[in-house]
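Section 5.1 Outputs to date
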Amino acid sequence: MTPDRSPWRSLRYRSMRWWSVAHFVSNAGTWMQLTVQNLLVLQITGSAAATGLSISVQAAPGLLMGLVGGAAVDRWPLKLTAAVSQALLGAVAFVTAVLVALGQLNLGVLMVLAAVTGLIATVDGPACALLGNDLVRPEDVPSAIGVGSLVHNAGRLAGAALGGITVAFLGTAAAYAGNGLSFLFVAAVIPFLKPAGEAWGAARAGADATPPAADPLKKSAAEAPDAAGAEMTARQGLTFFLSRPRLVALAAISGISALFGRNYGLTLAVLVTGPLAGDAAAFGTVSTVLAAGGIIGAVLGARLRKPTVRMVGVLAAAGGLLQVTAGLSPSLAVLLVLVLPMAVAESVSDTAGTTVLQTDPPAHLRGRVLGVWSSVRTLWSLAAPPLLGLLMETAGVRGALVIGGLVTAAAIGSGFLLRSRRTSVQVRCLSDGSPAALRPGLSTAA
């Protein structure tokens, strides 16, 4: 029988359909709040620096506490964890709404609320990601991730529109209250969701995903006393992550791409309004094409069944080469032709990478692995804009795009070349009758 590659196959599951609706409502509420949040900070402080600081304060817990948050997700019941974290995020939104309505929100309180939101998100992010994956069978996880990306984009558009309408007619506090209601809706839906199939559901509940002898980390986790601290379990997640070459390679590919490309909201804005002599409307057109490419890529990514790290790397390298040509664009029309495949490659690469990240670890370690990823991703997101800004200052925006794209493609290509040479040497040694201890290196396929 031909495998089903429909990008919508995950929606055959009733719980996944409900989760998609909840995801849409939650994202619409979040983007409704984000639409007015920066303006609110500026209104309170009158400082653009304070606006940036509030964003950094909210992101900081992901860098510092991502490991602990992932460990908490592995320790606690998944549905309960996701429902409680959503309810807590809703409570923070309601508190903010009340303070805004009463005129009592100052910079200090704002920073505290931002930090609390970021702290809760270190648990909520991996919990909701893993819960969504449990609602479908393993081969349908790419479809679930692709559909989630489409729902995210749809919620973003709806939320931005609702934000403007809400503020115009009801005020800023109503946008925060609406976001709070969206979180409570998700929390109310979660208890009724059911994992897809007893085998897949049992895996998340702690059933053996791999034989104990082949997974010493699992054995040590099972033998550890229940009172063991979060630090210990977080360290196990980090140890597992670093012991998996494919996860390390995925982190390296994503990091290089984040540091030297992908920040198109920054680089392309400078390119359009600078060398290409465009205006805000022209950049809006570029942004629209990028969004369309992201949607196309999400649909294509949802058709995948068993994506690999090699696929992620090839797409990232292709995106880097497209970035080089975009940096050399002689006109806006040529740039528009190039940014569509750039966005498609990025979106498919993201779907493939997320699928590998969320399905490669054994069930009992997935939260901790996502916690490691959260910390690394936050580090990249904080480091990339200053690095790109410095590169644009020294080499110009065209130079930054060209250099960044070449570095991305060259680094990924070199990694593939080194890995293929190492694998070739191992195969040659084994054929000569050397000890079989080299075999584990062959079993870790990209």
